[in-house]
Amino acid sequence: MADEIITAGSNVVVISKLRSLGMDKKELKRHAKLRRASILVPLFERNHHSNSNNNDASSAASSSNIHVLLTQRVSNMTTHAGEVCFPGGVQDTEDCQDDVQTALREAYEEVGLENQYIDCIARMDTVESKHFLCVTPIIGYIHPPTKAEPSQLQLNAEEVEVAFAVPLQYFANPTNCHSIDMYKWKGGNVEIRTYLYDDPESGRQFKIWGLTAHVVHKVAQLAFGGGEIKTKSECMFPYCK
Question: Which residues is 44 bridged to in the sheet?
C-alpha cells in the first residue's frame, strides 16, 4: 500500500510538470508556411509489466509508473514503413485548422483511442519533419489507463502493425540511448537519437529513432528533470530556434 501511495504521488508530480507547459501554441516562425501535421503522445499509468531496462532518472519521480504508447507502422506504407511512431498524421480539412483535433482524430483512426478518454495536458514546440511538415506534438493523459493498454486497442490494420508501451523514465536515462548520430541539415548540425527497446511482453526489439525519439526524449526530460534540454545540436531536423 505504501508503494502504491508513493507511485501515485510521483505520477501527480510528473503530470503536473507536463501540464505546466500549457496548451498555447508554440510555433516557430519558419514553420508557418509548412503543411501541418500533429502527433499524440499518449501517457498512461501501468501497475504491472516492470522492465529491467527502466533505470531511475531522478529520485523525485523514481517510483513513477507512467508509460508512453507507441506504434509500429505496417511495412507496406508509402511513408514511415515499418517505423516506430506516435499516433498522428497530416491535418485534414475536417480538423478546421485545429492541431489538437488532428492529433485526436488520428489517434482514434489508428488505434481506436476515443477522445473522451484523452486529457490533452500540453502542447509542445513544433518540429519540422524530414518530409517538410510542421508537426505539433500534443501530450495526452489517458484515463482510465486500461484504454491505452496495447491489448485493448483497436488497431487499424492498414496502418499499424503493433502497439506497445515503454516506461517514460526509460527515455530520461542516457544509458538507454543506443546511439546519437550527427547529421547536417540546412546549414546546421542535428543529433539523431536511436533507442533499441526490448519489449518484455512481445519479446521483440523496437528501434525508436528520429523525430519520435526526439519528442519522447524531450517529454521524459521535462517530466523527470533528466538534464538541460539543448536548443541546437539536440534538435530533430530544423527544429532549432
Answer: 67
